[in-house]
Every structure is written in C-alpha cells, then in structure tokens.
Write a structure and sequence with these properties.
Oligomer: single chain
Order of helices and strands: EHHEEHEEEE
Low-confidence stretches: none
Distance between the termini: 17 Å
Strand content: over 45%
Number of helices: 3
Helix content: 25-40%
Shape: globular
Mean pLDDT: 91
Radius of gyration: 14 Å
Strand order of the largest sheet: 1-4-5-6-7-2-3
Length: about 120
Amino acid sequence: MTDNTTLFAATDLPDVVKRYLTAHNEHDVKAASASLTPDATVVDGGHTYEGIPAIERWLDRAVSEYTYTTAFLGAEQDGPDRCTVTQRLEGNFPGGTVDLRYRFTLDQGLISHLIIAP
C-alpha cells in the first residue's frame, strides 16, 4: 500500500461504483451501463470494450453465460477519482472461484474506465 491509498468499506464507495456493482450483480445491464460515461472503456479477460453499445453486449454476455455470486472483500481509494474493489466470485465458470479486482476511474460522477483482473 502506498501513501496515497486508503482502505475503505463497501458503504464508503463512491455512489456510482455502488450503483454499478449492484446493477451488475443483479444482472441489470441498462442500470449498469447508466453508470458509465458515453465513451467508457472496460477491460476484462484481455478484451477491451469501448462505448456503451459494446459494454452492454459484454455485460449481457457476462450475466447470461455463467451463474455466480459475489462477495465484497475490500476496497481502496487510489486517488481522488480512482478506486479498486476486490470481490470474490463463485459460480459455474472454469475454476469455480476467483478474486477479482475492479479498478474504477471516475469522470464527473460516472465511470469512464474499468479494468477487471485477478
């Protein structure tokens, strides 16, 4: 942990991050995408999705392909407009369990960039 990183609880996450994670966990693609800037970028599994239409296709595929549950493990504020959330996913995907880091970059109250990686 560096000097400019602060640990915090799920309740202290930026509202837009809470809305995105809740929508994603509830498989609500439209609500999740409403948390994003129009030119947002998501990087997941080595693939980059740019713009709302591409991200909505990715979200729709992600929520329909596997059944899984998530558990919040922790969060860090990495800067004034950046935070990382760590969640454990358990489900019917290869491996069955994985801890993922969701690295959010915010722009004017919306998510402009998200990197999801172990």
